[in-house]
Amino acid sequence: MKLYKYITLAFTGIVAFSSCNKYLDQSPDMRTQIDDIDKVAQLVGSAYPNYNYLAMAETVSDNVSDKGVGKGSLDDPYVSYYYWEDVEGDDNNTPTQYWNGVYAGIAAANQALEAIEENDFGPDVNPYKGEALVARAYGHFMLALFFAQPYNISGDNSSPGIPYVDKPETVALAQYSRETVKDTYDKIRADLEEGLALLQGGQWKVPKYHFTPAAANAFAARFYLFIGEYDKAIQAANNVFPSGDYTGKLRPITTTIQDYSLAQQLIELTKADKDYNLLITETYSVVQRNAPFQRYGYSQRLYNELFNMPVFDGTTMYSRGISYNSGQDYTIYMYNEYFYYTNVQAGIGFPYIMQPLFTADEALINRAEAYVQKGDFGKALADINQFLSVRVRNYNASTHNLTIEKATNSYGISDPKEALIEAVLRIKRAAFMSEGIRWMDIVRHKLTVKHLVLDANDSETEIELKPEDLRRVFQIPSEAKLAGVEQNPR
Amino acid sequence: MNNLTFGKRCSDQTHSPFPKIFRIMKMTTALLLVGLTFAYGSGKAQKVTLSLHNAKLEDAFKEITKQTKFKFLYNDNLIKKASRVNLNVENTPLQEVVSQLLVNYKLDYKIIDETITISSKAGVNTIENSTVSVAIDQSTVTGTIRNTAGQTLSGASILVKGSNAGTTTNAQGEYSIQAAANATLVIRYVGYQTQEISVNSRTTVNVTLNQIDNKLEEVSVVATGYQNIDRKLFTGATAKVSAADAERNGVPDISRMLEGQVAGVSVQNVSGTFGAAPKIRVRGATSLSGENKPLWVIDGIILEDIVNISNEALSTGDANTLIGSSVAGLNPDDIESFTILKDAAATAMYGARAMNGVVVVTTKKGRNTEGAPHVNYTGNFTTYLKPNYDQFDIMNSAEQMSVLLELDNKGFFNHSGVSRASTGGIFYKMYNKMYEYDEATGTYGLENTREAKLGFLERYAQANTDWFDVLFKHSLLQDHSVSITSGSAKSQTYVSTSFIHDSGQTMGDNVKRYTANLRNNMKFSDKFSAEILFNGSIRDQRAPGTLTRQSDPVYGKYSRDFDINPYSYSLNTSRLLTPYDENGNLEYFTRNYAPFNIINELNQNYLNLGNMDLKVQGGLRYKIIPQLTASVDAAYRYARTERQHYILENSNMASAFRAAGDATIADGNDFLYNDPDLPNSLPQVVLPEGGFYNTYLDNLKNYYFRSNLEYDNTFNVDHRLNLFGSFEIRHTDRQNSGYEGIGYQYKNGGLVNPNYRYFKKMIEAGDPYFGMGYEYDRFVAGMFRAAYAYKEKYSLNATTRLDGSNKLGESRVARWLPTWNVSGKWNIDQEDFFNEDNGIVSAVGIRGTYGLVASLGNANNSSAVFYNQIAYRPYEDEKETLTEISSLENSELTWEKLYEVNIGADLQLFNKIDVTADWYKRNIFDLIGSIRTSGIGGQFIKQANYADMKSTGFELTVAGSPIKRENGFNWRTQFNFGYNKNEVTRLDVNQNIWTLVRAEGAAVQGHSQRGLFSIVFDGLDPEYGYPTFIGTEGEKDTYLYLQSEDVDYLKYNGPVDPTFTGGFYNNFRYKNFGLTALFTFATGNYIRLQPSYASVYTDMESISKDMVNRWVMPGDEAFTSIPSLLDPFTMGYEVLRPNGTTVNAVYPYNAYNYSDQRIAKGDFIRLKQVQFSYSLPASFANKLKMRSAQIALVGNNIALLYSDKRLNGADPEFFNNGGVAMPVPRQYTFSLKVGF
Question: Which chain A residues contact residue B653 at CB under 8 A?
């Protein structure tokens, strides 16, 4: 009898313990599992950087200048950027924050891809797999742009790239390698091309916040331009809109937008229902709050240079000259800060701006540049002039259009290809003021950046960032040393 | 007081049979193989069931007493040599049984008043050398027998030593006996120590007996929550505090009873608000990010908190700290004792939850009162003392006016700047008044002349408002507690209920709490017993309305919108402001663009906290064979908490939503709404009517089940073995939800007519108006413990346990953790070589242990964690649900663990002073916290096991009763201290300046678990008097990037937690008078003073008196370190960095608050409690039909006898962070205790 009791007891114990694991499988909170296509799609939706590069890209470029002693604020990181110094910390608008934000997006892509691999979701998941691949490529591409040496078209690309992450991290402090610039770009291309092919048929609730085929092609156009594959760049730009026709798809700067009230303009440019916005993402940022009020920022001098002086003979581009403090602090006024209240009653929350990552305008002007590079000047000029048609006030094709002669004469460059490239870069600089695009051109074309420094008597000195200057590559966050990733040389 | 952790030998007490049997009952049973079967003995026809084999006669008596409550009265000599007895009877009348028992012994008996007096049969001299003789010169001796509580004992036996003469006390505890003048009386009473007292020619001999029940339990049994284990078998470091010794009349929270009582247990009152637990540390902190709070085990069941609030978060003052401690639902009157398990050997049974020590609370049980109800009432009537400005260094109104006039002269207050500000005091009022044009009279509210202005300001300059007097009250805290104990041998019941009504320390708070407690113990047979407990509490509490605190690391500030904490308001508000105007009406100033008056706000913006907590617990014990007991314990707990935040329409918080004013104000007011659909219009009011009614629910459902098997046997007399196995399962669901009720119209009978724009703003802003979430806690564990003792000399213990939890995430590897422990004890005094008669050391033993315990850290990412979230986008048609990675997988995640070695010694000196000393060393590793990673994996800040720590400590307790005179002066004392020093040995993260310099401190490798650092002050600027510092480059600077990780130039002050804490307790008793005093002390820590310096002061906030000594003109920097008041131009252009760039003056002035100039030592000596009591004489009490009565006057938290002068009298334990946090008040209590 006793023995029987013991056996029963022991048996009960064993059964109890083996079922413990099942009992403990309960999630500790209301977390979710990636176990169906909807969840995969939702996860891929967060594969985009939640921080932006606007402050860093603009303030190191020549889109800013010194307003003078006693004018504007001297906040970091703006001051450090202006003097091309390494920025401390991981606050808003720092390189470290952007680095972290991009890799966070890449992690979401990788988690989604892993879930796709581990589960059998069938072919319906393909567009989201494609989106994850393209988003992963995009993230790495942007990081390479800022944190690695530029890709040398048909040159040496053996300098360190950036760590290419293609699977989820599972340990606290994983080790990574930068490999080479070539490796990085090869992997970007592989992901982009594999992903692009899968995107067809994707259904998105809010497509403009995802890599739709159009957005992915706009990215491809930018990417192929960087690696010098111009045919592919043209092809990609053509795929953005049916038959490559950009008519009516560009930002109506000199028409509709010009007539908006300022408050309206602030809202409209970043809306998803506009054809010109191909990909938008929500980014945590105080850039619209801070940047216009910095001493080193978009100044009256720059406004005059870009929009009161011809971009080439006879043609002056247009921008509303919007400024704070009686013409001291200029702004393009396109990023409305949306304040996400975590508690309306307490008045606390997060500042966000909606950042257009890809626009029809950029795709078109990239196609123009690809045509120039290929020597197809006719098509290039057609694209450039289509672009100018919405950027020049009271546009008149016969007087405002660019021609090869105008280009060579205006810039004193005899080589038509080089002259047209110069025209494209100048047009882009003005057209994408405060959008960070200028830094991409500076990197790709190895342009020298000049910054003006004013002293108390407003006498000017100039500092330069030459193409070979090591400071052109942003410093990799010091924490990356924990992962065995070496810093950029200084 | 505090009962010591080592086993006194059982044989050092007395040689009388009753207590001895009680004390070693368990052992007797085992040794003699007495199988006793119990049956009901009904009250009237006393029946007995006995099954005795070779039992001692006295054991038989003892059993009969137990079953019937009849007492035996006899002379030891009569039965000393009686042979052993065998008897089997079932349900046999008492008289018959006694006759049968005595039949072979030629003993006779009489039964009078439930006392069975045994005597030798008349004329038969059966006992050798019978010394019975007739004494000469006998006189009548009378007296009263009482217990230590002053209650009279009826039925106590009084025997004249060496004779057969004996009697018992009557219902009033009185006796009368014939005895010789030189005779010795032996007084016996079941459950009390037998006392011998010589008559010494007296005719009145009153005797007080000491209860042995408690004593026995305290000394020979350790309550671990799992087992009540024989002290002989227990080898860990524990301390027991009996509730009677630790009682704190007038302090309704039991967690404060531990203050100063136990070496190595520090209790820091970071908030005195009811419900906010003090910061309790057992042997210091063991975790960097975790809760560090000990596990509370109530009657064997782990008490879960309704919300998990870390000890650090307790000092934030956030509203949820009010429900941070479930212990607040217990009635102090229901507590029997606390046992604090300190070292790894003691806590081993809690395995992976044991790292922070365990507080085992035992509540009162019913006693056998033979069915008579014993009723006890306790009433405490307490009043508070208001704080006053003498304790603080705050400028009076005249001093402050001179500062403000200086600022005014420097151009800070001018019409354009002040009149449209969001916040404003007297200058705001003055400038606006100058523009109030009265058309009828053609005059302005105030003329813009110097005279008019000074006239206006004069009233305020003379106001010298005492905000403490305005906002604090001398109100009454009353608590009443009634308990009833009643029981028979088979079933005992304890029922209690209590009620507390605290009218509040301030205008903004009050509490009501009701508790009910029922405990019943039942014995169905000698094999089967059961217990059921029911515990319930209801709390109804009011607190000032508060929102969650925000941290601003850029400037280095914490902020809380709409903070109306009366204590911080009194400290931080200028004494120039007046609560009432000349006509006695409330006077309003401006906050958030809306009118503000603190009295109005406290009435219009408040929290109501309702809490209901029910626990039902049951236990069954079954003796399978005498040596083997199976038992199960199970509990179900259900707690609901509702926090209601009332924001009435006239509150500042609701009015701020309506402050549209002119365009400047509308643009500046964040509480208005910029409608994206109306881009060209001004911001709009979204709350045109009403206020808010916000509710937050925190619910808890907790199930617990445990089954145990215990084997206890003795082999060959000397070998004792105890095996204990247990399996437990725990299931906790926590639900929380929050709901914002918008536009509730309190004035209109609860009408709700909200404006759609409020919801539009919320929806666009991504702020849901309600939310609900669950947390699930699942836990299983299996445990095995083996204890072995050889004679009384050696004992050895080994414990192993396997814990499993779901809290770490889905990984099946990380969730399991085995822990283990070995320990041993050597009672040196039991060795033959120990000279018992040395006169100094009466007992000595040493203990040692080594083992692993652990704790769950606050990380749950053993697998990747995803949450769903609505995308942060502005428009309805652009929002979508996203799945976010909250945390990447950390496959290496594991529990926080520590290895501990503990060596302890227990000594008894002169037979009356107990000394316990413990030394320990802990190796703490795998600590969890936030680390910064490369970010490449996609998560910059991760939760991971990133740090190791070591700590060492020493604890000493000296306790005893140096003076002990019957009916005379008694002195009981206890002195204890604990020293704990820890050092972080590994830390995979760099801290930034801000986390190191703030009051809470942070961990840095090579320093303590929470170290406080300071920015190094480098003098005042000789030209302008602003502060300068040693910057991150090691040179003089005015700007410090507070998030910088260059911390080399910070100064390490010391730990935030005291390294040395202790208490000193004294109890003096003379006859019916008692005096108790408790001192607590601590040292070794540093405190960040309140941040009170700013680059510019508003006309609202108070200013430190130190400002009188501020820098005024060049040269002053040699004599003062108090920074100057800057003028606007200097602020804007002349505060320079070394490279010549200007810097915002906010930076250096805020940095000054975190510099080495703003540090104080945390040392203190505190007179925590003084109690003066008087017990009514029994004769008097009896006339009032009471068993006992006592009155006491108690002062709590009376005086801070010593603290750093730099604190200016502020409480070194209290973090003044606003919200609902309040300091522990000084209070005086009248206490009444009566028993019927």
Answer: 345
